[in-house]
Amino acid sequence: MDEHSHTIKFEFCGKPVEARAGDTVASALYRSGQRIFTRSFKYHRPRGLLCLSGKCPNCLMNVDGVPNVRTCMTPVRPGMQVAHQNAYPSLDHDWLSIAQQFDWLMPVGWYYKTMTHPSMWHAAEPYIRKIAGLGVPPLVGTEAGEYEHGYRHAEVAIIGGGPAGLQKAIELGTRGEQVLLIDDQPALGGHLRYSKSSRVAAGELIAQVHKLANVEVLQGSYCFGLYEGNLLGIVQSKPHPEAAERLIHLRARQVVIATGAYEAPLLFRNNDLVGIMLSSAVQRLIRLHGVAPGKVAVVIGSGGRSEELVSDLGEAGIRVAATVPPESVIAATGKGRVTGVQTKNENLRCDLVVVCGHRVPDAGLLSQAGARLEWDGGKGAFIPVDLPPHVFAVGDVTGASFIAASPLPPERVAASKRVFVCVCNDVTSQDLQDAIAEGFDHIETLKRYTTATMGPCQGRMCQLSSIGICAHETQRSMGGTGTTTSRPPNPSVTLGALAGARHHPTRRTPMHYEHDALQAVWMDMGEWKRPRFYKTSSSSEEKVCVKEEYRAVRERVGLIDVSTLGKLDVKGRDCGKLLDKVYAGRLSDLRPGRVRYAVLCDEAGIMLDDGTVSRLSDDHFFITTTTGNLEFVHQWLEWWLIGTGWDVHITNLTGGLAALNLAGPKAREVLAKLTICDLNTKAFSYMACRRAEVSGVQALLMRIGFVGETGWEIHFPAESGAYLWRALLDAGSEFEIRPFAVEAQRLLRLEKQHVIVGVDTDALTNPFEAGMGWVAKLDKEDFIGRAALRRLSGEELKQSLAGFIMNEGELPEDGAAILVDGKLAGRVTSARYSPANWKAVGLAWIPAALARPGAEIQVRVGGRLARARITQQAFYDPEGARLRM
Amino acid sequence: MKEKPPIKQTALFNTHQQSGATWIEHHGWQVPAYFSKPEDDAARVRESVGLADVSWMLKFDLKGYGLKNPLALGEAAFSLNLGPLHALVTCNPSARREVMDRMQRLETGDAALALPPSVYVTEVTSVYAQFLLAGPRCRQVLGKLTSLNLSETALRNLDSGQSRVAHVHAIILRCDVDGIPAYQLLVSREYAESVWESVLHAGREFHLTAFGVQTQQLLNL
Amino acid sequence: MSFLLHCPHCGDRSVYEFRFGGEVKQRPAPDAPEADWIHYSYTKTNTAGVQKEWWNHRSGCGQWLQAQRNTITNEVFETFFPER
Fold this sequence. Notes:
The complex is a heterotrimer. Chain A is an alpha+beta fold. Chain A contains 21 helices and 46 strands. In chain A, helix 4 (163-174) links the parallel strand 8 and strand 9 (179-183). The longest helix of chain A is centred in the first third of the chain and has 14 residues, at 118-131. Chain B is α+β, with helices and mostly antiparallel strands. Chain B is built from six helices and 13 strands. Chain C has a single domain (4-80), classed as Folate-binding fold (2-Layer Sandwich). Chain C is mainly β. The chains are: A alpha+beta, B alpha+beta, C mainly beta. The interface between A and B is large, with 55 and 54 residues.
């Protein structure tokens, strides 16, 4: 069957285009008569197909909403929406092409020369962005498809499916190696697909590869980076109908680079005109797509390469007006489109100029792997040498068969604003020469100043010419001038591919959907979802709802989900030794059935975390950590066990245990309905813990009081979470129980001046400053932070964390400034309106000298200063009587 | 006030409810029996790939010097080596009594030598959500979510490894049954829904189906 | 940075699976002079070359291990679990 018999329809700028099977977007458009594909970055000069192999910027378009798509590499699909970029109103009539009349206004480095004041840049930027551009990012939610990631491992990864890559795949595959071959073209074969000069038959190689079960081919996938540890970044387009792209993280034991060589343009005036193409692009159009790219051609080149082209053009029915050597070419002529070539001797007329350009090894990946590029004058190319172990190069990327196309550095370079070195960013030979004259004569500074090699093609089209000009102007050799650095990603990668699927790990407590049913308003706490407050039947206003939750706890009874607490089970004979070593307090003397508050410090005496430690039996402890610090505390404990030989075994039970805090004057009555455990304060005193059955669920009850009321923290298996939550709410309904959430809890604890590590303290806070010096038992022989805390205990405090109460009705924000005598002296860490005090209360860092009851401070509230007084004791129930009831 | 313990719910109760699960009680747990029809679910697993919530499987965390020697826990239990002197034992709830008896024997230290127990056992059934990803396409699905090397030579049948799955720490056990390739995935319970959704999403191109315990029995998994 | 670290339990893994734990140091005795404690708490050698350092395999077995790594080239020479 004729593969061209099948037509595919798509749209270009709203107009229908017919394509044949095997077409790329670019080849189909070319066949339909389109000649201008893009408008250049700065001057809006018309640009046509140049390389047709994904190496140049000349065919970038918007495809299905995605900008900067290389249309010469994109196979056509039915119904595609293709649109041009950076031209108004159309590619053929672009009003902004007026910009080239003002090129004299844009000398090299004109940003730096013109925008000498920030205000000028801010004024000019919106216009510059509109004129100079590379497409428009898609609006959120209009992406062409989903993006995803995948992970692969291979013994050997071969990059490039040309003859060298195929031969290597066959060689290694036959040896039994597991090989992954990555090819960015629509089909295997590399240049064998369109060039008849080679003696190797592609079909035979491809058939052999397909026969090997241990060789897998990833077609239409490109490698954009080779990173440390042989990690390769691969982008696979359309891995399945729902995905636009898949980014594959490929780890390979060995990497074979078989990326071959590409062609780079030659320098002459108007070398960017539409109709001037690289020779391999012409061959691709003729052989792969059956399109004759012109009627009369001039071939610029010499030797075997140009002879091959003349023969190819002849076969396609294109008359060759002349073959001219590169040195003799002065300019191309034409306005927009090429109409002729001016040489030293004659003026030739044509509608197609075929440039047999420099051959350049596509060695970017090798450079990224650490290979050095060494100039070889005979080959006219930088050749990769000193390859690192595990990375190999085969085929044309090694430059083995190269012969220089024209001498480099060139004997003469015309300074002109029409000799385009960098087609991506419209950098001309004159720009480069001026920059060198201004002192930017190192290849790396020249790159940054002129932006040559910094465009979408990442220097593929212009690096060699830039080095040539730099070498010529500075009278250095090519090797002495050196190359710029290749960095990934190259070619470019969509941000969607890098981001991948939106898998945000989320942690949910066992009661998550109970909260949902109770109209919880959610907040994120790290990866956890926690209710911030619950809407009520009459209000969804946070202030109102929080106050109701607060009143329930203070006056009746409330229930909060605290399952996000870190929970560690610690078993073994030497638990006491470990806990005494890592916590500032003493825990080895804790009696079974008792709970103690404990603070963790580092060696510098900084407070890292706090929580409760319960002793369940002689050899069994249960630790809670703050929500965000579980992983850290677990690792910290394990770390300090190393080398001790102690019998201690730590198991993280966080996900396995639901935890609730039932608190308020009626808490005992509610809990008593569901358990036979004696809850009387004599039998179950403050800071005691017991195992008990609650409504048929085995639980650990801890009598603690973060919110300042009689209460129990109940830990029990997560699979009964929703059940026990409901059971407790049912049991409490006669007491008008209310679920309460994080915001009410923060207010309740603030009235008690209970510090939250990480909220009221920071990465420099020690217990003395936090007013919690009592947590450090300095008489212990050794513990983490003891040396620093002993030192600090003898030093005068500079600042203190202290409670304050506002004089009037203002409410400062968390973080508000504290002023003393008009000078900045500290900051508020937490402040809330306290219903118990009819005023706002809070915690703040203040100068230590002021940390005495009654001292006056000023707090900035909404741009004004308000007065407040320091209070060293809790704002609610300072004796803690309610906790012990 | 002695009450009958409540029926247990996995972390995915709500997810299964939303997917229209038909429920069944299984060893004290409320679990999906099937989603469409047990036979249809089974056919889709056999043809491509399916995902089941098997969080009701028993799990025990074992630590201690006794793990230097091979564990003798009988046929019913499967032991995964999680690290130096650290193992995870998983078994069917029907084998609870037998496996716990055997573990209890390990837990007793040598009183005469005043040595600590050679093995410390902590039940972690509640701590981990456990998924069964089964079917000919299961490796391709998992390969989209983890950088762990899943190739035939790197993770053979009954091998286990720990890495991230959908950015969450996971224990991965390969456990093919009757020629159907399969993995058990264990993640901390609070991540269950998040990881479950990620696996479903990754499996969409293979028409991944959720399946229940009745389908599992049909498939002999 | 994408080098591989060899976890003695899990095998070769991407460095992203690990948490860096700093250079291996000797903790002073409890009664050591204050200068030793200050040096231990606040000073880092910051070796340009091979150093012994702590890593935690947080995404894998969760164990702490020590590695000999060249901080310039990221070449890892040896990894092992220290005695518990």
